[in-house]
Design a protein that fits this description.
- With 243 residues, this protein is α/β, with parallel strands linked by helices.
- It has one domain: Decaprenyl diphosphate synthase-like (Undecaprenyl pyrophosphate synthetase), CATH 3.40.1180.
- The protein has 7 helices and 8 strands.
- Helix 2 runs parallel beside helix 3 and helix 3 packs parallel to helix 4.
- The mean pLDDT is 93.
Length: 243
């Protein structure tokens, strides 16, 4: 955690489940795609606010491996929005010293999207102010299974002994292996579950739920979550002082 100019304990790694785009749109008589477009605009402001407050890693659940089950028109709209984001925002992220990372299985993404991701990661690789992580075609269980397969393969080749596989060794084989664990997880939209998101990395995260739909989640709402986090006591299983 970091100390902010406001005297708050700022989480080094914040993860967000950006929920409620579709419901926000339907409540206004708009197509779900309009909600996703409004959500992309909200995202721009939250990234700026995270960087301003000293957050070092911001991981966003952008498209889960289960989201392919949505109607084809909605999936196509989401992929088109992703294309536009990668084309329109990367230069701005780079100018603001933000590094882009993408985690998840890219094999099902369109070739041009995969290429845009690779180019964006390469362009921003040396940036250090904030690492923005997009979880695309991502699932927490699949990530853990993938890490287990890698370690099993290494063990079969004699490169590592089963006894040497500690929690730290296992974590290093996750897609977030070079990143710190999540300190604060925010979910918008009024649901109270983590939906297969960063299952390993959330082990000791503080959880913050809000009924605000993602398109209406403002920088002030984000800073309210940071303030809430700052007031919590993180004991990691230990007994609190004066308890």
């Amino acid at each position: 955690m970091l100390d902010s100019p406001k005297g708050l304990n700022i989480p080094g790694h914040v993860a967000i489940i950006m929920d409620g785009n579709g419901r926000w749109a339907l409540a206004r008589g708009l197509p779900r795609a309009a909600g996703h477009r409004a959500g992309a605009e909200a995202l721009r402001h939250i990234v700026e606010t995270a960087a301003k407050n000293g957050v070092r890693y911001l991981t966003l659940y952008s498209f889960s491996s289960e989201n392919w089950k949505r109607p084809e028109t909605e999936v196509r709209s989401l992929m088109d929005l992703l294309r536009r984001y990668l084309k329109a925002e990367i230069a701005s992220l780079h100018d603001n010293d933000v590094r882009l990372r993408v985690i998840g299985d890219r094999s099902l993404l369109a070739t041009d999207i995969a290429r845009l991701i690779t180019d964006a990661e390469r362009m921003t690789a040396s940036n250090r102010r904030l690492t923005l992580v997009l979880a695309l075609n991502y699932g927490g269980r699949a990530e853990i299974a993938s890490a287990a397969r890698k370690l099993a393969h290494s063990a079969a080749l004699g490169l590592v002994s089963p006894e040497a596989i500690t929690e730290d060794v296992f974590a290093a084989h996750l897609s977030t292996g070079d990143m710190p664990p999540v300190d604060l997880m925010i979910r918008t939209g009024g649901e109270y579950r983590i939906s297969n998101f960063l299952l390993w990395q959330l082990a000791y995260a503080e959880l913050y739920f809000t009924g605000t739909h993602w398109p209406e989640f403002t920088p002030a709402d984000f800073e309210k979550a940071l303030q809430d986090f700052s007031g919590r006591k993180r004991r990691y299983g230990a007994v609190a002082e004066n308890a």
